[in-house]
From TrEMBL, chain A:
It is a peripheral membrane protein. It holds the Pfam family oligo_HPY. The keyword Translocase applies. Signal peptide: none annotated. The lineage of its organism: Bacteria, Pseudomonadati, Pseudomonadota, Alphaproteobacteria, Hyphomicrobiales. Its main location: membrane. The complex is composed of two ATP-binding proteins (GsiA), two transmembrane proteins (GsiC and GsiD) and a solute-binding protein (GsiB). SMART domains: AAA. This is Glutathione import ATP-binding protein GsiA. It catalyses: glutathione(out) + ATP + H2O = glutathione(in) + ADP + phosphate + H(+). It comes from Aquamicrobium zhengzhouense. It is found in: Cell inner membrane. Keywords: ATP-binding, Cell inner membrane, Cell membrane, Hydrolase, Membrane, Nucleotide-binding, Repeat, Translocase, Transport.
Automatic annotation (TrEMBL), chain B:
The lineage of its organism: Bacteria, Pseudomonadati, Pseudomonadota, Alphaproteobacteria, Hyphomicrobiales. It comes from the Bacteria. CDD domains: TM_PBP2. Residues 78-267 form the ABC transmembrane type-1 domain. The chain crosses the membrane at residues 16-37, 82-106, 126-150, 195-224, 244-266. Its main location: membrane. Gene3D superfamilies: MetI-like. PROSITE patterns: ABC_TM1. The keyword Repeat does not apply. Belongs to the binding-protein-dependent transport system permease family. This is ABC transporter permease. Keywords: Cell membrane, Membrane, Peptide transport, Protein transport, Transmembrane, Transmembrane helix, Transport. It is found in: Cell membrane.
Amino acid sequence: MTTQTPLLSVEDLTVAFGENRVVENLSFTVEAGQTVAVVGESGSGKSMTSLSIMRLTDNLGAHFKSGKIMFEGRDLAQATQKEMRSIRGNEIAMIFQEPMTSLNPVFTVGDQISEAILLHENVSRAVAEDKVRQLLEMVRLPDAANLMKRYPHQLSGGMRQRAMIAMALACRPKLLIADEPTTALDVTIQAQILTIMRDLQRELGMGMIFITHDMGVVAEMADHVVVMWKGRKVEEGPVREIFANPQHPYTRTLLSAVPRLGSMKGERLPKRRPLTVLEDGQPKVVGEERVQDTVRTDEPLLSVEDMLVRFDIRKNFFGKVTHRLSAVSKVSFDVYPGETLALVGESGSGKSTIGRTIQQLQRAQSGVIRVRGKSFADMSSAELFKMRQEVQYIFQDPFASLDPRKTVGFSIAEPIHTHGLIGDRKQVTKRVHELLERVGLPSAVASRYPHEFSGGQRQRICIARALASNPKLIIADEALSALDVSIQAQIINLFMDLQADLGLSYLFISHDLAVVEQMSHRVAVLYLGQIMEMGSRQQIFEQTSHPYTKRLLSAVPIADPAFDRAEIRIEGEIPNPVRRVGDEPAILGHDEISPGHFVARGA
Amino acid sequence: MATTTARRSRFYNLEFIIGASLTAIICFGVLFSEVLFPGGATKVDLAARLTAPFTNWTHPFGTDPLGRDVLARVLAGGKVSLLVGVVSVIGAVLLGVVLGLVAGYYRGFWDMLLMRFADIQLALPFILLAMTFVAIVGPSLTNTIILLIVSEWVKYARLVRGQVLTLREREFVLSARAIGVTNWRIIFQHLLPNLLGPVIVLMTLNVANNILLESSLTFLGLGIDPSTPSWGGMLADGRTYLQTAWWVSVFPGLAILLTVLGLNLLGDWLRDSLDPSGRSSRP
């Protein structure tokens, strides 16, 4: 294998926008049948690398300062765009992160895939359509003939990504570049897509470049890993080597920041972990290890009973509702002071709807929400307004949740002004500065605007804003999922420190089970708007009882290539929660199998 | 990325300098036209009628068919035109933006009512509306401005409502609601600053449109007193002499062009300087 020339070899590649070098002196090779993972955090130049190989960087205004991209004896860095057109899609294909935006919404799936075939191969329409059917079957899409006539919006996210893979494979490429292909998908769907990609690669013997930030996916997919940092390759090697014996300080800090599912085995309470950070180019361990024993179980702070939220989806001609989405069906749980309750589940499980209803951004059809024993229904409007001070919400995307036209200081002071907490202007400024320092930012940044910060800093600002009104409960809705792993680890510790110091409770909404395992006291697993299993962290992760929880846990990629993966085939889609009126889902009862451990009955 | 910012800021200053100086020169000329040419706009000198421009330095831009000085008339005519153009646009913006904000934010019955009303308004021909209006209240400067406000506010209301519909679903509005910020503050503190960009662009374009609409109203006898000079009125007067004496209509036309150019550049500059991220959001 090694004696023959590699399929693709990138030599000393430097890509620049003007004087700004985004990729510097990068070299690596891909053999036929090999998967090379390019790993790095945002801004590391990993996507630029893939776009450069496809020469799509030209449109963005980038140019090559040096280097060669050798593919089958040709230097792609020197090829004309006309030559590249015959290579793109035909010999090198690419899959992008967001399958909805990469498919054209006004053409059927069949048309879009056959377009690639008709473009590159001299075949008739009927032959092309036949090939499309085979391709769709190859990516295990059921009922291929029917599916070809459907439009992208009629497909689920996982089906769309499979259609994208089918399209990429239409001309049997020799090299497939996958740029974060599963990042937007749920874990069970991710597991399916990864299996399909692995099988197809084996079948077709193509080379694959897999670009990702998820070390778990790397461990599952890659043969060879290239670690990038600030546009440079810092380390490269076989996957087991990289994980077992990382050499470069950056790789070591990156790997130590990755939360690993199962790493908390035997621990009763969540634990704050020390962080490994890069200081003067050397990894250094900072912070203490502390068991998060903060729960006070006298009286629940928040208690939700039989919450039911339904949305009207479709109406008939006369305005009568015909289809409803049951977002949350009779969900009950308590949150105690100083406790973190995690709500986990896949898209459509209703976890965000629960958070929004508690925050009064949405109305529940029925059910009781109590804060410190008093029900929302019994509260005066002044008391309900006060709830918006005591309960705060942190959104997934920190950039979207800050007004781009207001300074950060204004945004943080807004809850203080809204609730009239501090009258004096100077005192407000002082408090804003205190809050910024509390979340680890210099107080001088108060006069800056959101776009001047990085993703992690923006999330710190959102946390400072949430803290401004002295809340008792913070609802964190996927607050960590838009962040890089090293930043994520810092924010987890910030959350835990704040809990220890201020006695905060968190309702932590997440799909990332490894993070949930590390930071929550109790966990509720949601599926289609109902709780499948609820219990302490240890009960959920170590005495897993409900089949859905088991399935969810088995789908999580483990960031360890030596991990022996049982070949569990996860099949099936997440069902559509929209139902006809009168065909409401059955509400499941719960059994308490051990103290505090509830499991849904039947179904 | 760094290069685009640098390029933008170079244009950005140029935009301000050219826009501000054009607008300043025109405003100065118009405001002090009485001082610069005392009585010049109305003085009839039949002996010097239709003097070509740049031939006689007492009449640098030539004279019209009654021998009145074109330059003096252009400056004097600017008073009416700028007054009508700027005041009517400001009025339409105030009305349209507020109604659009409220309709888009609260949705529901009032939104429906307002938007159907806007549809009816858009379906009515402008001239028909003008004739009916003037028949009831009579022609005057104030009524012309009111008529223009009434016919133009719809554009702003529709534009703003559309922007609000997308903005109100954005997370920063949701997070303000989650904190408990009042609707009123959300509308004026968060929504308004975020939709000013396109409104400013539409405003600067609308000034020219309204100056011309005023002239068509005057031409039809529905606007102001035709003996008062205005740019639109002079354009209409000079139309018959276009082949023999082009300067009668070209100079007021140039005045409109330069005013609009100046305001446009200023508007672009204003829009960009209001955007803290420095990315221009062209509509």
